[in-house]
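Still learning folds. Look over my entry:

…
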Amino acid sequence: MKLQLRLASRLALLFLAAGLVPLGVTLLVLAPRGQDALRTSAKLLHQAELEGLQSRIDGALDDLLSDVRIVATTHAGEANEAERRARLKFLLDKHQELTIATLYADGQKLPGAQAFDRTEVSPTDLDDHERRARPLLGGGANASDFYASARRREMLITLVIPLPGQARYLATELSLKRVQELIARTHVGRRGIAYIVDRHGQLVAHPNLQRVLGRADLSSVPIVAQLIPNIERAVSSRPLTVVTDFSDEGKDQVGAFAPLARLRWGLVVAEPREDAYGLARATWAHAGGWTALALALSLMAAVFFARNITRPVAKLVAGTRGLAGGAFGITVPVDGPDEIKELARTFNEASLKLDQYDADNRKLLLAVERRYLEVLRALVNAIEAKDPYTAGHSQRTAEFAVAIARHLKLELDEVKEIEVGGLLHDIGKIGIAEQILRKPAQLDDAEMRVMRGHPAIGDGIVGDIEMLGRIRSMVRNHHERWDGSGYPDGLRGEDIPLGARIIAVADTYDAITSDRCYQPGRPPAESVPILRRLADVQLDGGVVDALLRALVEMGQLTAEDVAQPPIAGAVPAPTRRRPTLEIMVPTPPTNKPN
């Protein structure tokens, strides 16, 4: 017994010594190198994101300048008034971000050489435009400092572009709304953002529009302070892209910046350092965990090396059971006769290969799910292109539905199904004629019957696809009502599938807060009393409460907003050409549904 213990101790020390050398090399050499590689990769991703945004913004401006050259080459200065106005109107129609265009010659506005968006521009705006444009006449292309329109809730600049001929210029007012929307849609990593500053460090575009309208000054932020000198320098040289670490309000950040030379702006992307370098930090933790595991396995193998043959066989049996239970990648440290060692080696190789196959299959499944959702979104975008007033409606409905499902603590698979159901809930509209979808006036009874057929059409479409079978009820029944007055099946209360009830609430909220051709969207806070009024009449009250909690968490509502009482009586009258939306009950009108 003493000899056996002594031999086991020596073998244990031998295995530990042999295992510590490669593990030490891995931990002290390879892990730091891996960390550096991961950090470099994170910075390259920031640089790629920055250059992509820079290219898109510069490309949009290049398109605008190209069209201005077309106006110039058609001798706009020599054309008659009608031709000038027509060419300028063409320029405004093609570039929705242009709200005013004016031709000047010798410092004077040419007769009839002005076009503007009458729905957006007031006489005061025209006077302000001319006041800003005149100091910029002369020399090359010039741009004013950006300025805010509180009425339109957007940022603007005045851009003056020289035309061929002596002292001839085109002055335009350029809305930065699309730039703001592009920046708001940009996500860097998990919590990172992008924003644009001018040469003074003031915000031009930022995910938080209020900060832009408030002319927030970021010149004291280190990365902006480093960017500002490069903005003027980039006007006469090739713009540089710089990736750096910095601190903002006591929070460590990783960011990249590049000048936008044409307008003397600067573009910044930034992400919390803990997110950007999270994988690098996890490398050390994983290395330590795997080191401890490897040492433990080595010690176990050494201690049981001298035991009888039943021990290795028992381990093989236990390993086989684990493998059968789905624990791929497990290895069995077995020693003994050559036959058992060979069996153990074969088992370990098979287990590792199964683990690799399992990992590859999981990656493939995730990739397929992503592509699947991308295809669905492309299909939804194609459908919504038939009705520009509902563009993005299905995506927003899906996002709100997912938020509701999470607050109802549904299983992950159910949440994914609800996301797909939200994306495809209006797929039946692909079978509705465009003249009905886009009709700006009230639908007649025949048209209303056609429109109410879109849930059944959608059910028929997804019903033929096996993998979409679980969302059929969401597509078919998202217009059912809690009181049983909905369509197409007239279901009532909890007879309506939960997924359809969730999508109905999400659909209703987006319809209330989105602009449509027949009524303007309401602010989120004004939707609360309307939703309360619809609860337990048209909508499931529990689902409505879940939506309100989700909106508070998302920052769209406050606790004070949620505490508003329901609207008493009928919903307020519409402000445009149609009656209010069909969702605005208790008295169901005959107009177009969501």
